[in-house]
Write a structure and sequence with these properties.
This protein is α/β, with parallel strands linked by helices. The protein folds into two domains: 238 residues, Aspartate Aminotransferase, domain 2; 113 residues, Aspartate Aminotransferase, domain 1 (Alpha-Beta Complex). Helices cover 42% and strands 13% of the residues. It is built from 14 helices and twelve strands. Strands 2-8-7-6-5-3-4 form a seven-stranded mixed β-sheet, with helices on both faces. A three-stranded antiparallel β-sheet has the order 9-12-11. Strand 6, helix 9 and strand 7 form a beta-alpha-beta unit. Helix 3 runs antiparallel to helix 11. The chain is globular. It comes from Lyophyllum shimeji (Hon-shimeji). Keywords: Aminotransferase, Pyridoxal phosphate, Transferase. This is Aminotransferase class-V. GO terms for molecular function: transaminase activity. InterPro entries: Aminotrans_V_dom (IPR000192), PyrdxlP-dep_Trfase (IPR015424), PyrdxlP-dep_Trfase_major (IPR015421), PyrdxlP-dep_Trfase_small (IPR015422).
């Protein structure tokens, strides 16, 4: 294996994208990872830098925790803030997007008559968070905006505007909307900036679950978009070590997020505060492994060596469009987004399974085992709008032939499932 020490590696020319990049990741050579969207993947140079940092931490935990950590953490926050177009003191780090959304939603002072809105495609744990908040006192009203794909951004915007106009809370009560920048399943980009504007016009708070945005979306610019809250994972598309996420809370809204979760030793009751107390709470709210948090800076170094955000995403986006089309040809089906309006670096292709076949835990486990144990390959799959789909992540180590391999595997698996279930295959 080549030396993956970043200090030496980054003096060399970067590889071409595709299979030449595989040696910079720790994948089993027999495994084909087409599911970056779920867990991400940490490059070997980032792992090497993070492992070195871990040894430094362990060599003198007190020195690191009490003195060395803070300036390194500030530097990572500064670099990430610059990436997303925000002020450094509006950005803190949390373990993952679910924690970020929970931190925001559980800091609102809910009252009877308030309204909390999610989407039918809201990520599972976030959707359940909304449900849980509605289940406990004072029982704010929860509502759901339904969007079924295939559709268009224009339809989403028009329908959401109409929905919100008649579903905001009564006067004197608050409305909070949780919306995705990029939906997890289906893996589609949303017109989130337009939706944020609609929320603002309606007097509703916007909480953007941007779990997939950093490292995949290159024109974020939060100072311009002005969501009320925004959170994105760094261990997915930015390739930091699991797990770390950005929580963006603009200064105008930091009074809402009164406490970190868990509450930090730096917490000061709002009644007693004489200065800002937001950022400092996230510099220590319990003992954790700080190495993944600081790995985000090393991930940025690796990506800059490869050519930067635009070059990386140009390759991945082009491959997602071409790969989705090729996969649909092999399966004899269709891509969810033929015009590319909804696509960043994930493509959704219909699977040749009958819509009458409904998902069950047993079927889910069977498909997972077929993909992973029999074929050593994985791409996400899901049931949406009475159809079965696969979500394929186009990453820098993927080439078009990998979509073709996946197509053959899915064809085999779908044939087997249809026969096992005694069904007729879709045409």
């Amino acid at each position: 294996m080549d030396n993956m020490d970043p200090s030496e590696l980054y003096k060399q020319s970067p590889p071409a994208f595709g299979h030449a990049v595989l040696k910079y990741f720790a994948f089993d050579p027999a495994y084909l990872n087409l599911n970056n969207g779920s867990y991400g993947a940490t490059p070997r140079p980032v792992l090497a830098a993070t492992d070195k940092l871990t040894l430094t931490i362990e060599s003198n935990p007190d020195l690191f925790m009490r003195i060395s950590l803070q300036p390194q953490l500030i530097d990572v926050r500064r670099r990430l803030a610059q990436l997303i177009g925000a002020d450094v003191d509006e950005v803190v780090l949390v373990p993952n997007a679910s924690m970020g959304v929970n931190t925001v939603l559980r800091n609102f002072e809910w009252e009877t008559g308030d309204t909390l809105i999610g989407f039918n495609v809201t990520y599972g744990s976030v959707s359940k968070t909304i449900r849980n908040i509605g289940d406990v006192l004072p029982h704010p009203t929860t509502k759901e905006f339904v969007v079924n794909f295939p559709t268009t951004h224009a339809e989403i915007v028009a329908n959401f505007k109409e929905f919100l106009a008649v579903n905001v809370a009564p006067e004197g009560k608050k409305t909070v909307v949780v919306l995705d920048s990029i939906v997890s399943n289906p893996g589609v980009r949303m017109p989130w900036k337009e939706l944020v504007k609609i929320c603002k016009s309606a007097g509703a708070w916007s909480v953007v679950d941007a779990a997939h945005s950093v490292g995949q979306e290159t024109d974020i610019n939060l100072s311009e978009a002005q969501p009320d809250f925004w959170v994105s994972n760094c261990h997915k598309w930015l390739s930091a070590k699991r797990a770390v996420a950005i929580l963006y809370v603009p200064k105008r809204n930091q009074h809402i997020v009164k406490t970190s979760i868990p509450t930090s030793h730096a917490y000061i009751s709002p009644a007693d505060r004489t200065d800002e107390n937001f950022v400092i709470q996230y510099e220590w709210n319990g003992t954790i492994d700080w190495a993944p948090y600081l790995s985000a800076g090393h991930a940025l170094d690796f990506r800059n060596w490869l050519g930067g955000e635009h070059k990386i995403n140009e390759y991945c986006h082009d491959l997602a469009l071409k790969g989705g089309k090729r996969l649909a040809e092999i399966l004899g089906t269709r891509v969810m987004d033929p015009d590319g309006e909804l696509t960043f670096n994930m493509t959704n292709v219909e699977l040749p399974l009958p819509g009458t076949l409904k998902p069950t835990p047993e079927l889910d486990l069977k498909i997972k085992k077929k993909l992973l144990e029999e074929h050593n390959i994985y791409a996400a799959y899901f049931y949406h709008n009475h159809r079965w789909w696969t979500r394929v992540s186009a990453q820098i180590w993927v080439e078009l032939e990998d979509f073709e391999r996946l197509g053959k595997v899915w064809s085999t698996i779908c044939d087997e499932i249809v026969k096992e279930q005694g069904l007729e295959k879709t045409s």
